[in-house]
């Protein structure tokens, strides 16, 4: 019998919108999410490992930043 286990990231969406992406240098859409690592057996998440982390992810380039990036001035 094989036993498949490991860890996996799971995202929970907190919202979305438009922001000035620091990598693209342009207005882009973003996803605001809570990311948490889970221990899984047979790809079924069983136990969360550590606390969640809020991120802002650009939907164009895939870059991820802290939510503070939403407060930056687009003129810089």
From TrEMBL:
Domain Zinc-ribbon per the UniProt entry, residue ranges: 20-63
Pfam families: Zn_ribbon_15 (PF17032)
The protein's name in its UniProt record: Zinc-ribbon 15 domain-containing protein
Protein species of origin: Cellulomonas fimi
